Amino acid sequence: MDKGYEKERFESVSIKSSVVRKFRRYCRNISKSQSMALLLMIEFFEDNGISPTESMGPKMQTLENLIKKRINGVIAILKDIEKSQTKPTVAMMETLFKEAEPKKKPLILEKKNVEKMTEVRFREKQNPSNEL
């Protein structure tokens, strides 16, 4: 029995015999009772707002084209953000950090200063007893 529909009574509907055979074959393929298969079909059409007489082809193509347009729109927005906001901001930050770098000050005892100092003021005292 169909869950939730056990206490309902059956009604009859007049359907052509060729349609009934096709419908019963379809119900066996989806493993549903005839009532549940018909209910699923009706709910599908109502939920999706389509009519059984409409073709799904153009609607799916239209939907696909709409999605592609929106994706292209999002890509264009991201590229614009990158050009107008991200790249200029990065450039400004780089220039700020380049200017903020400390200037290299020469060390006190650089080579050029050592050459000037040829005169030695203090010498180590040498003990004659330490000589070998």
H/E series? HHHH
> Total helix count?
4
Tell me the number of strands.
0
User: Which percent range fits the helix content?
Assistant: 55-70%
Stretches with pLDDT under 50, minimum 5 residues: none
Biggest sheet details: none
Structural class: mainly alpha
Task: Specify the overall morphology.
Answer: elongated
Distance between the termini: 116 Å
Oligomeric state, counting identical vs distinct chains: single chain
Mean pLDDT: 80
Q: Indicate the proportion of strand residues.
A: under 5%
CA radius of gyration is 44 Å
Search tags:
132 residues; mainly alpha; elongated
Q: Can you characterise this structure?
A:
This protein has 132 residues and is an all-alpha fold. Among the domains are: 12-53; 55-99. Helices cover 61% and strands 0% of the residues. It contains 4 helices and no strands. The longest helix is centred in the middle third of the chain and has 45 residues, at 56-100. The protein is elongated and about 130 Å long. The N and C termini lie far apart (116 Å). The model has no long low-confidence stretch (mean pLDDT 80).
Give a brief outline of the structure:
This protein is an all-alpha fold. It has four helices and no strands. The N and C termini lie far apart (116 Å).
List the helices and strands and how they pair.
Layout: H1 17-30, H2 34-48, H3 56-100, H4 111-116
